[in-house]
Design a protein that fits this description.
With about 450 residues, this protein is an alpha/beta fold. It folds into three domains: about 180 residues, Molybdenum Cofactor Biosythetic Enzyme, Chain A; about 80 residues, Ribosomal protein S10 (Alpha-Beta Plaits); about 150 residues, Maf protein (Alpha-Beta Complex). The chain is about 40% helix and about 25% strand. The strands form four sheets. The chain has a six-stranded mixed beta sheet, with helices on both faces. It has a five-stranded mixed beta sheet with strand order 14-13-15-16-17, with helices on both faces. A hairpin with an 8-residue loop joins strand 6 and strand 7. Helix 2 runs parallel beside helix 6 and helix 9 packs parallel to helix 14. The longest helix has 20 residues. The chain is elongated. Bound molecules: adenosine-5'-triphosphate (ATP) and magnesium ion. The site of magnesium ion has 7 residues, from loops.
Length: about 450
């Protein structure tokens, strides 16, 4: 860990370390915490996006973000958040709360957490006056607060605003800490961080490299995917594995850190290779591609075409297929046939069939797929019919029941599924299943 390494590297003069000298952080992962300050980010209307930017920058140095906190403009809570962050992270970055107004309290709170004073910096005061003078405005008295530096801090010039940032290297409860205060507006924070903080961090943090990989699976329940994958990824404790799931899709995100790029890549690639083997059938991408892109890629490669007849998905499948640029080469078109009459009119579904089996049935799904395939003269036809809810379900045909059929001129395939969730989710599931069915046919 960073403190032990520090101790070793500075021995025996560790106690003589002076703030302001460059930090030497030797091995291990250095970690960071980001504290986003601002009451607006505790409302439903504003998001903290600065931490995403900062995380990306820190990760590029091999620094792991271990926690993020959002705190309102409240001095006591801010000081508490500062103490918490300082107790557990090597680098603590505050964003926001450096303005001139009464509710900008980051300086005060961090000073309080460190048990030090604020002092007005004469050079900063002069700069502020000059800045206002150049704009021919008299500086409001409260702007002088922005010239207050935490004892031991170095000011970070902010060319895009009046609030300078602050850089502090200090011991906190015996552990070495780098504390950075940044202005909240992203257009001020980003250049300031890149130009002034990154070079300093780069020279302090030991060189580590990060490699990442991802795998995307279609139509595997998350818990099942995890169960099957856990047996494998548990053997690789050096690779951080994150599982993200949405309707009909599971993504594995792998991330490894090492002292060389090759080692980091070797670690993620070994694990991703094994996961790919385990999920050979369900894995549709090891990159950024979406399922509709992959399906499009195969359709084109095989010189084939597809058309769709959609009932409960209301055109969502056509929408997804046409998200891909160049899809006109393989997607011929389709229909949204919501009423029974339209199913008959556009896809030749016999009214007697609908009468006998109901519009939501295996038979009608197949008839839709075959009907649209014939009308559009495509290699494949897809038919979807189901109950998307939340109304319209019955005991026999509950909400979530969907039939998806795939016709190719031979024996049609049809799948019956009972999807969980709300209307949006059920519809998405249905299109995901349809795309996966087509992909399985094509691979
Ligand atoms: P100053 O601008 O004087 O430095 P400040 O740092 O507190 O003050 P605010 O005035 O609170 O900044 O915010 C200025 C703008 O920056 C607002 O639009 C605010 O929503 C945005 N902002 C602040 N923090 C963040 C954040 N973490 N992520 C995204 N935007 C933010
Ligand atoms: Mg603020």
């Amino acid at each position: 860990m960073f403190p032990q390494k520090m101790r070793r590297s500075f021995e025996p003069g560790y106690e003589n370390w002076e703030p302001g000298t460059c930090l030497l952080i030797y091995t291990c992962t250095v970690n960071a915490e980001i504290v986003a300050v601002g009451s607006e980010m505790l409302t439903p209307f504003r998001q903290d996006t600065n931490s995403l930017f900062l995380t990306n920058q820190l990760n590029s140095l091999g620094v792991e973000v271990i926690a993020k906190t959002i705190v309102g403009d409240d001095r006591a809570r801010l000081a508490e958040a500062a103490r918490m962050a300082l107790s557990r992270a090597d680098i603590v970055i505050f964003s926001g709360g450096l303005g001139p107004t009464e509710d900008d309290l980051t300086r005060e709170a961090v000073a309080e957490a460190l048990g030090v004073e604020l002092r007005r910096d004469p050079a900063l005061i002069t700069e502020l006056y000059t800045r206002f003078a150049s704009r021919r405005i008299k500086m409001p008295e409260n702007n002088a607060r922005q010239a207050e530096l935490i004892e031991g801090a170095e000011a970070l010039r902010n060319p895009n605003g009046t609030a300078p940032g602050q850089w502090i290297e200090t011991l906190y409860n015996g552990a070495m800490r780098v504390i950075i205060l940044l202005p909240g507006p992203p257009w001020e924070l980003e250049p300031l961080f890149v130009e002034q903080c990154m070079p300093r961090l780069r020279s302090s943090v030991p060189e580590t490299y990060i490699a990442t990989a991802q795998l995307k699976l279609a139509m595997v329940p998350e818990s099942l995917a995890d169960q099957r994958a856990a047996v494998i990824y548990k053997q690789f404790p050096q690779v951080q594995t994150t599982i993200l799931a949405s309707a009909g899709e599971v993504q594995f995100h792998l991330r490894a850190q090492a002292s060389t790029q090759e080692e980091a890549e070797y670690r993620v690639e070994t694990l991703s290779g094994l996961l790919e083997e385990e999920f050979a059938k369900e894995c549709f991408s090891t990159g950024d591609e979406t399922l509709e892109q992959i399906v499009g890629y195969y359709l084109q490669m095989r010189n084939t075409t597809v058309s769709v007849a959609e009932s409960c998905t209301g055109g969502l499948l056509a929408e997804r297929l046409t998200r891909v640029s160049g899809s006109s080469r393989y997607f011929m078109g389709g229909v949204v046939v919501y009423s029974n009459e339209m199913k008959t009119l556009f896809c030749d579904v016999p009214p007697l069939m609908i009468g006998a089996h109901g519009a939501v049935s295996k038979e009608v799904a197949i008839a839709l797929a075959e009907g649209i395939r014939g009308e559009c003269r495509t290699t494949y036809g897809i038919g979807i019919t189901g109950v998307a809810g939340p109304t319209g379900g019955t005991e026999e045909k509950p909400v979530g029941l969907v039939y998806i059929a795939l016709a190719d001129g031979g024996k049609p395939e049809v799948i019956e599924r009972r999807f969980p969730g709300d209307r949006l989710r059920i519809r998405h599931f249905a299109t995901q299943q349809a795309l996966e069915m087509l992909r399985q046919k094509l691979v």
